[in-house]
Amino acid sequence: MAAGHTGQVVVRRAALTSPPMTNDQLANRTRIMLNKVPEVTVYFWIIKILCTTVGESFADYINETLGVGLTNTTLIFSAALVVALVVQFRLDRYVPSVYWLVVVLISVVGTLLTDNLTDGHDVPLWISTTVFAVLLAAVFGIWYARERTLSIHTIVTTPRESFYWLTVLVTFALGTAAGDWTLELTGWSPGASVLLPLGLILAVLAAWKLGAGPVLCFWLAYILTRPLGANIGDYLASPRSEGGLGLGTLGTSVLFLGTILAVVVFLTVTDKDRTETVGRLHPGDAADDIVTPSRADA
């Protein structure tokens, strides 16, 4: 499932005056920002689901098992997220290791936002779900009003990247609240709870295949992968007496973090999820970079 493109990335040749500018001078004059988000492939969804599972299990391990406490856990991961975002925003293109580190941290922080409201302030889950849904709609509305697109294939400016990461944070918080609320209403076991978000994702996939808008389908699936990943994490971590596999929160976190690391290393080496390819020109050419899409528009 892929969000829609708005067109190819175009780098125009700089107008030259006498005397001609060198390649180094052109490089210093213009900073070219490529798309900061990976291509939406099967690898994207695999890591996204793994990250949501880690967000659930690792937050529970630090908060409950180690006894750090909800407030301190939130402060620790929020500080780490700020540092990671600073690094991410300083880059001028997609770098798998940095991008997915931000997603892992934002999945934990998004989970903790809902946990703080529910456990720390006794806010009912239906209220949290409603508030985050309204907030997400507001972010989308402001993003579209300013940029005229919600496509993740055009994250080539700082404002668009800011809207993107804010949206991702809210989707994690919303997915946590909606998923927990569903479990509260149904009382399903950890194993059975995986089926509902999985079924809804398959329905979104079918709608996309039948011609539904790719941007809408992408963001719906993005939200739904949060409860799917969290429920998978609960199933793996819960004791067998409660219908789980008994791996514990630490075992589940280590397993999924290791898998994320392996996939990210693979993507870094192969560039299979990069949306553009960048070629360096030889001395005497008119621009510093040639930028072309690495795949056909979806």
Principal-axes shape call: globular
N- and C-termini, Cα separation = 9 Å
Query: How many helices does DSSP assign?
Result: 9
Q: State the strand order across the main sheet.
A: 1-2
Radius of gyration: 21 Å
Percent strand equals: under 5%
Mean of residue pLDDT?
82
Q: How much helix, percentage-wise, in residues?
A: 55-70%
Number of strands: 2
| Helix-strand category | mainly alpha
Question: How is the main sheet built?
Answer: 2 strands, antiparallel
Along the chain, the helix and strand elements come as: HHHHHHHHHEE
Number of domains: 1
Low-confidence stretches: 4-18, 20-31, 277-298
Overview of the molecule:
By secondary structure, the protein is mainly alpha-helical. It has one domain. Helix content is 64%, strand content 3%. It contains nine helices and two strands. The protein has helices at 23-29, 42-65, 70-90, 96-120, 125-147, 158-186, 195-209, 214-237, 248-270; strands spanning 276-280, 289-293. A two-stranded antiparallel sheet has the order 1-2. Strand 1 (276-280) and strand 2 form a beta hairpin. Helix 2 (42-65) packs across helix 4 and helix 2 (42-65) packs antiparallel against helix 9. The protein is globular and about 50 Å long. The termini are close together. Residues 4-18, 20-31 and 277-298 have low confidence and may be disordered.
